[in-house]
Write a structure and sequence with these properties.
- Two copies of one chain form a homodimer.
- By secondary structure, chain A is α/β, with parallel strands linked by helices.
- Chain A has one domain: Alpha-Beta Barrel (TIM Barrel).
- The first copy, chain A, is 45% helix and 13% strand.
- In chain A, strands 1-2-3-4-5-6-7-8 form an eight-stranded parallel β-barrel, surrounded by eight helices.
- In chain A, strand 4, helix 7 and strand 5 form a beta-alpha-beta unit.
- The longest helix of chain A has 19 residues.
- Chain A is globular.
- The two termini of chain A are 28 Å apart.
- Chains A and B meet through helix 4, helix 5, strand 3, helix 6 and helix 7 of A and helix 4, helix 5, strand 3, helix 6 and helix 7 of B.
Chain lengths: 308, 308
């Protein structure tokens, strides 16, 4: 079975960019045509989320290698939302050829032992119940909690991205704590554990199936982690709405233009609410706004990556 | 609205014990009558999980104050599993009077900002889409990630239990790291943050709506954390199958018998597979095995709590 990370590397090369489109639906931000008559209960809202996200996928699939549904927004609609999530993942993974997409489900799951195994069975691989290619995972429970995920990645051609340095203002509360008798911080200690697992699962592209979440909002730490984690592919949140720019994330990529995917959610999927797209396209042409915002982000990242 | 933590304290006093029954269904361990003819697809297994967990709830509701469904096992069955989970939570929260139960959903969720808010909206409070009373939460993202949960607890009469010291062998990889320029470890630093939030949300029972997960398998740290976190209610996993005994968890309780609920999952729900219950009751009387195992655990905990 082709390894997840080699499929990812190939798609980044084929599409010529490392953009990840985050699918974070919020009812109030949807185009009005999708809200109308649907504000009655979770079933209607879930139907709107599914229709909206599938339409986004149809727009971006020729352009980018990865989409990242945010599980929380679907969970917030109860079981109806979860059914919508499954449909969205399935729609994305049904794309083939020049439209092929990988799906990273953003669920930040983890637990111990057989419970972690249940999460791995739930989400990892296209034959799993949810059918995602990769899952975001929280590290607080330690290295043994990552083992069932690593085993499922190997068995199912899937990947995980472990939180290392998150993009939020309070991310440093624990992550930036200096650890005694090591030269660094907690996030560096987590990075060491993740890099060891990445190295042991590396494929032809030289990166491993065990990746890391490293936020765009702390560019110095991003550059430092790129050096410290040569086998670890980065999922980089925080570009756009959260304030990270192309120059901030450039250090996440290697000279081949590999090694990272940079996520943007609101900046792309709700482009119709935001200038210059609001004026250029308006709500009625919201898919064109999504396409233009995606193309602008691709261009922005390329301008900061002269080697790629 | 009555605070979550005061409802919990009252139920622990009324039922006379701090036992939490973990609902961790695994298809292969279910009574054979529930497996038969149902091994075809997620829908059938999900129906078996719902029937099994509801039957467990019917047995334990007069005996214990809390049940804790483990989300991972339901998620492993895809959307069908999530519908079953919603039904199980609803069945538990429908109990009233002497059978009243609180539901802690074990999902170990968290994310940043508005995404954490989506998780809080999804799960916290009986009027939320999933209708749980409390949720387990991971701390790696920092104190600001707890804020949306704390706000939802306050608004909806709900609670959270933040992972502090987990029960697994590798839990110490990061949690036990000594932090420079503080007198202690990472888990102690997390404990300080949680205790501050517990103190600021404390109710009549003197504990707060923001609780902590502290494993039974490290009894010295459990006793130390009890001292360090006087306003924090503990959810204690690791009793029974994982090796923790009544003496190990006694330190989690105060002199009133409050301050903790001790979880047992497999030891109770699959008692029919295990001696002495297997011989005494057998599969055909599996509910009697569940009742006996629950009563034995209540007795075991009481024997170690002379003050309660």
């Amino acid at each position: 079975m082709l390894k997840f990370i080699d499929r990812l590397a190939k798609l980044v090369q084929t599409k010529g960019n490392g953009v990840c489109v985050g699918l974070d639906p919020r009812f109030e931000s949807l185009p009005k045509e999708m809200q109308t008559g649907r504000d009655h209960g979770h079933g209607q809202r879930a139907a709107a989320y599914a229709e909206f996200c599938k339409a986004i996928i149809d727009v971006v699939c020729p352009l980018v290698p990865v989409v990242k549904p945010q599980s929380a927004f679907f969970e917030a609609l109860g079981p109806d939302g979860m059914s919508a999530l499954a449909g969205v993942i399935s729609h994305a993974t049904s794309k083939t050829g020049a439209e092929e997409l990988l799906v990273i489900l953003d669920g930040k799951r983890n637990d111990i032992g057989s419970t972690a195994q249940a999460y791995a069975e739930a989400y990892l691989g296209r034959n799993s119940p949810w059918g995602a290619d990769a899952l975001t995972v929280s590290p607080y429970l330690g290295d043994d909690s990552l083992e069932p995920f690593a085993a499922a990645c190997d068995a199912n051609g899937a990947g995980i991205f472990v939180l290392v340095k998150t993009s939020n203002p309070g991310g440093g509360d624990f992550q930036d704590q200096l650890i005694q008798q090591s030269a660094g911080t907690l996030y560096q200690r987590v990075a060491d554990v993740v890099e060891a697992r990445a190295k042991s699962t590396s494929g032809e592209c030289e990166y491993g199936d065990i990746g890391a979440v490293v936020g765009a909002t702390y560019p110095e730490q991003l550059a430092e982690l790129r050096q410290a984690m040569p086998h670890t592919w980065f999922l980089v949140p925080g570009y756009g709405a959260q304030g990270g720019g192309a120059a901030d994330v450039a250090a996440a990529f290697d000279k081949r233009g590999l090694g990272a995917v940079v996520n943007s959610s609101r900046g792309i999927i709700f482009a119709h609410n935001k200038e210059p797209y609001k004026t250029s396209y308006g709500e009625s042409r919201w898919q064109d706004a999504v396409r233009a915002a995606t193309e602008d982000m691709i261009r922005d990242l390329r301008s900061a990556l002269p080697h790629a």
